[in-house]
Design goal:
With 217 residues, the chain is α/β, with parallel strands linked by helices. Helices cover 27% and strands 24% of the residues. It has one domain. The chain is built from five helices and eleven strands, in the order E-E-E-H-E-E-H-E-H-H-H-E-E-E-E-E. Strands 5-9-8-6-7 form a five-stranded mixed beta sheet, covered by helices on one side. Strands 2-3-1-4 form a four-stranded mixed beta sheet, covered by helices on one side. A hairpin with a 6-residue loop joins strand 2 and strand 3. Helix 2 packs across helix 5. The longest helix is centred in the middle third of the chain and has 17 residues. GO terms for molecular function: RNA binding.
């Protein structure tokens, strides 16, 4: 998954203008991570931004980053609850399949990735009276996979899980945001095309620099 020295870019995506945007830095509880957000009213397409970065790195017009290993282009955030997660995934999957740039076969092959960074710490801090709640249940990887897969199939009935070569990948990232109540968990969600993910050793966003060239990667 995402390793040390990562950048998270979090916005809701609907526009792809050339405007300059102000970004805010969100305080996190873990080292080696940065979470950057754009104003809600100015939301560039984070998938396109990361795709362009990879293209620039590949062409040599952009120097290889030294301290940033991966950039996770978050498209939306939501509270880690079943209905909220289902609604968020369904909306983003619908946008993905309706985008004419995404050429999909039938059945549509998809995969789900869930990064629970800080899971142990969060689980231990959740009050005992909420241990059996929706929040606690969704911390379970298999439960989250089941909910996300159901949301995908609700939008694309002709779809099947393919862990080796998914055409679309749903990545859910538990965000260790500082200052939130221990029982309030927030996740970032993105629907990524095949070119932006790697499936080995497990599903995750591609590293900006392959091999050992990334500092502390």
């Amino acid at each position: 998954g995402l390793q040390k020295n990562e950048c998270h870019s979090s916005v809701k995506t609907d526009t792809n203008t050339e405007t300059d945007f102000d970004m805010s830095l969100v305080k996190l509880t873990r080292n080696g991570l940065l979470l950057l957000t754009f104003p809600r009213e100015h939301s560039p397409n984070t998938i396109n931004i990361v795709s362009n970065i990879f293209q620039s790195l590949g062409s040599g017009s952009l120097k290889s980053p030294v301290w940033c290993h991966r950039i996770f282009p978050i498209q939306a955030t939501c509270v880690l609850k079943e209905k909220e997660l289902q609604a968020t995934v369904s909306k983003l999957v619908l946008q993905f399949v309706n985008d004419e740039q995404n050429k999909l076969s039938r059945p549509v092959k998809f995969a789900v990735g869930y990064n629970r960074r800080g899971f142990e710490e969060k689980q231990n801090k959740i009050p005992k009276d909420t241990k059996d709640s929706d929040v606690s249940a969704l911390l379970d990887r298999n439960k989250c996979f089941t909910i996300v897969a159901a949301a995908v199939k609700e939008v694309v009935s002709d779809s099947a899980v393919d862990l080796k070569s998914p055409e679309l990948s749903v990545l859910v990232e538990l965000l260790p945001i500082s200052g939130l109540p221990s029982e309030l968990l927030v996740v970032g969600v993105s629907i990524l095309p095949q070119k932006l993910v790697t499936t080995k050793p497990r599903l995750s966003i591609r590293a900006l620099v392959s091999g050992t060239n990334a500092k502390n990667g």
